[in-house]
Specification:
- The structure is a homodimer.
- By secondary structure, the first copy, chain A, is α/β, with parallel strands linked by helices.
- The first copy, chain A, has two domains: about 1-125 and about 290-334, Isopropylmalate Dehydrogenase, CATH 3.40.718.10; about 130-285, Isopropylmalate Dehydrogenase, CATH 3.40.718.
- Helix content of chain A is about 45%, strand content about 20%.
- Chain A has twelve helices and eleven strands.
- Chain A has helices at about 15-30, 45-50, 55, 75-80, 85-95, 110-120, 155-170, 195-205, 230-255, 260-280, 305-320, 325-334; strands at about 1-5, 30-40, 60-65, 100-105, 130-135, 140-145, 180, 210-215, 225-230, 290, 295-300.
- An eleven-stranded mixed β-sheet of chain A has the order 3-2-1-4-11-10-5-6-9-7-8, with helices on both faces.
- In chain A, α1 crosses α11.
- The two termini of chain A are about 30 Å apart.
- Chains A and B meet through α9 and α10 of A and α9 and α10 of B.
Chain lengths: ~325, ~325
């Protein structure tokens, strides 16, 4: 049995998509057991009773908490005053081995802060990094950091590259992942001193297949298995990608509803378009591990809907099943 | 008559799209006169003779240069050794008032470097910023810096905000543009000290409609008229957007060629799809001004094709026509 602590409060859309996502994941993965940490005030017993069948409820336990971390709360404030929030208690339960992992779509900085405070980092890592996957024309590209450490040192980014490469080996079975460093150009003299220092270190690193600098477009070109960058640029790139995808999808929708022929085509192609949408949907790859913490912590997108949250929960269970944490520890120390 | 110096060498695709773009722009704008600076070795007289009609040639002058700046050349190296390159001579011609503006698709860092060396900055500006427009669902959003200054100070970014706002007023006629600062979240406590400092200064700035922090997705949401960021994040965001757009366009092409019904729909909708493509095409907004230099310097995308280069050249002529440089000087000093 795989036990996952789910922080049901926080997230931009409230607890409804979380609950629906938990239900979907429990149905899809019979090994999964969910401990749901929920703020008393936001909890509606009714939704839990009506939405979960008796058999699903046997693998679901509700833990009411007296507080929750707000999305716009300063992390330092949250760390001081929200030790009985759903987020803190869910992480604490992993520390106490009551759960194998914790999943939250709440305040990222607070999640990183509580993770550091309650779980600490594994040996060889000073700060965690948020690692996610992006769809590409040839599979997927892993990408870190998405915002755990906005201004890392080159040394911390080197550790991030090691952790990301370990993720590629474990999850995608790529023994020698092609690693790139995000930069303003592919030419080796480009970038700031940080990118230059990191590249020099990656070239010397044993067992590291450093291909060179990657540009923004390379996140989707399939030319790299892993792209490393600081948390600021990573967050900007990810959210820019989501923005473009939404803008283009809206434009396509408008185009396919403009006149009768367009609407006819839309009907004719709706299955193909749905397939395409599924292929490119960021929610498909929702769930980003906070690599480097001494405990499995996964962040779901703040705006994730039911399917997105469900995928993040299934990924969390899969990471437990694969033994992601002991594997990472072994790789970093080797 | 508007005289523009065009650097025909450099660029990722050689001089062919530059020549074709120049021809298109000369046809479209009868006031335009082009001085073409071209590396001897890459120049093929034949293409010039065969592609330009006699009447167009009367508004085109060829200047053969002994050298050119390579795309992967270190800017400091270029500044020392390439003073007779097509790029340097084209910029020099603006300094000497032989041309009203200069357009290049070559090495960005070298263009910034030669611009600083040969033209200097206007009063009140220490470093230039590259400013471009992105399509949004409600018009367009101006965005700077795209990579002229990878690690600006908050003070330099404040000046960039002033210059960008001036661009919105001049070109789009928006008297009080909604200004945002790119960050990892919209909440006011987000980001690094730089974003915090900049926001504090923008709030105090008179005649500045500072709306708050923008996220990557806001570049396309239409919620801002201008988004300010450092050159590293700006370059990453722009290239990420291009990468996603290309990836999605490819996926759509694949979907619309999969079976006979899909191909039939493609035929039926080809005009609508072409319209859509034109609406979202980054080439439509090609041409980014290097604001802050004491001369009009415009950068065309390194990979721009004919239409992209043509648009950049027409934009350059339009900036001359609007008196962009004296307008900017007046705004910065007021």
């Amino acid at each position: 049995m795989i036990k996952v602590a789910v922080d049901a409060t926080g997230g931009d859309l409230g607890s409804a998509p979380v609950l629906a996502g938990v239900r979907g994941a429990l149905k899809a993965d019979p090994d999964l057991y969910v401990n749901l940490y929920c703020d008393k005030s936001s909890h509606r017993d009714a939704s839990l009773n009506s939405n979960f069948s008796r058999s699903l409820k046997s693998r679901l336990e509700l833990h009411l908490c007296s507080d929750s971390v707000e999305m716009d709360e300063k992390p330092i404030q949250a760390l001081r005053t929200k030790s009985s929030s759903s987020m803190a208690l869910a992480i604490q339960s992993v520390k106490e081995n009551k759960n194998d992992a914790i999943l939250s779509s709440g305040n990222t900085a607070a999640l990183v802060g509580f993770g550091l405070q309650l779980l600490g980092t594994i040996e060889g890592v000073s700060r965690p990094a948020i690692c996610t996957a992006l769809p590409s024309s040839k599979g997927r590209t892993w990408f870190l950091d998405m915002g755990a450490n906005l201004e890392p040192t080159a040394e911390q980014m080197l550790v991030n590259a090691r952790m990301g490469a370990s993720q590629c080996r474990l999850i995608d079975g790529i023994q020698s992942p092609r690693v790139g460093v995000l930069n303003v150009g592919s030419e080796m003299m480009k970038g700031t001193r940080k990118e230059q220092e990191l590249a020099a270190q990656l070239i010397k690193e044993p067992n590291m297949n450093f291909v060179g600098f990657a540009e923004g477009a390379d996140l989707f070109s399939g030319a790299f298995d892993l792209v490393v960058c600081d948390g600021f640029a990573g967050n900007v790139a990810l959210k820019t990608a989501e923005g473009v995808a939404e803008f283009l999808t809206d434009e396509l929708k408008t185009t396919l509803s403009r006149h009768w022929a367009a609407r006819f085509c839309y009907l004719l192609l709706r299955h193909d378009l749905r397939d395409m949408r599924r292929r490119i949907d960021p929610a498909r790859y929702n769930g980003a591990a906070l690599l480097g913490l001494d405990g499995l912590v996964v962040k779901s997108h703040g705006a994730s809907k039911t399917v997105g949250f469900q995928n993040a929960l299934l990924l969390t269970a899969e990471l437990v099943r694969l033994g992601a944490l002991p594997y990472l520890k072994g790789e970093i120390l080797s």
